[in-house]
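agent> call fold_tool(seq_1)
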Amino acid sequence: MNIAFVVPGFSADENDWCIPAHTDIVRELARKHTVHVFAMRYPHRVDTYAIGNATVHSFNGVGSRGLASARLWKNVLQSIAREHRRARFDVVHAIFGGEAGSVAVLAGRLLRVPSVVWLVNGELVGRREIGYGADLIARQRWMNAAILNYADCLLCGCAQMVRTARTRNPNARVDCLPLGVNLQRFARVPSAHANARFVNVGSLLPVKDQSILLRALALAADKLPHAQLTIAGVGPLENELRALARELNLAARVTFAGNVPHDELAALYQNAAVFVQASRHEGQGMAALEAGACGCALAGTHVGALADLARGGGAITCAVGDANALAETMRRAYTDRVALGERSRQMVESEYNLTHICARLEGVYAR
């Protein structure tokens, strides 16, 4: 097959992780198929280059607005059409809705080839209390509505996103197909997970709600006297979260690890007993899946892939925004960490592994 991927950004070179799950899926598909990636905003150069066996076309659209944004769309569409004339694309596939999804749908219509859009973020939500979600921005909301109406197939990273997409357009073809985990990079180490360390990985933003996580740790302190928490990520709430940790007398228990490079994340997970998620929304949640592949017991809020895993016994979850419930979930996960970690690992390996996801994706394309 000849596949066109449209993405907001992509790896600038072989050593740039950008969004690793996207790079992994492209690399895997490019082993057997011809793959062109059209990266609209990042990297910050206009170029054509190779990542693995895939060809990447970058347009440096960073900061483009208004007429400049329209020119960016035109340039990307013309580049897709030019490659299509050289060798006909079988499918145009966007990762993310919004701009990338709209361009993929437009290209599909113009070239008369099927379009697929992967919704794995906040495309179908709008949380005013935390300023999160594409629904809060009129332009994004309109683009995603058009995608729901005109894409030939929508792929969602979790069951909740599928339900939302089908509610908004009952006639849309929607499948639950998450991004896959690279099991060569994320794997269990037999001697790990014997400690009382919890880990959370995510940007320090309101939607990730690490403040509730800190409050839950404080509430669980008497039942988890030796618990330590590592929070890996950067963001505008870092100073506020550090202050809250001091206020809750958790300074000695909580480590703010900052931006952990992607190739060091596996070691972080392998040296923790429980991965805990406090998010108010997840379109999927790659960090939880990567931690599960490394054998961490999975616990946290009932959103994204964690909610799907919980239905099969691969995670313990609780309601969003409830510190007491999250404290109890953390306690239960730690108490059952060996058996839960094994169930988490088995489910991630069987249902979310990259090879399996690519095979399912090929089936979508073939259909």
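agent> call fold_tool(seq_2)
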Amino acid sequence: MDRAEAFNMIKADLIELFEIDEADITPEADLMEDLGLDSIDGVDMMVRIQERTGQKVSPEQFEEVRTMSNLIDLIQSLNS
């Protein structure tokens, strides 16, 4: 999965799960500060990523995710 595909997948999930405005979702967006996610939302997002990729996200990987770009990197690392 390339970066654009990963971004589009995450964007679709953020819109569906958290009703975030599509215009606010950019690769540079901070998940908490810019998109308003909290720690529970983060867990929900990690569960969705595990479902979509079929790969487990470790606590260490989860802790490193702060931005959309970090999330894209995570998905690419799970698919490689």
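agent> summarizing second result for user.
The chain has one domain: 3-78. The two ends are 9 Å apart (CA to CA).
agent> awaiting next instruction.
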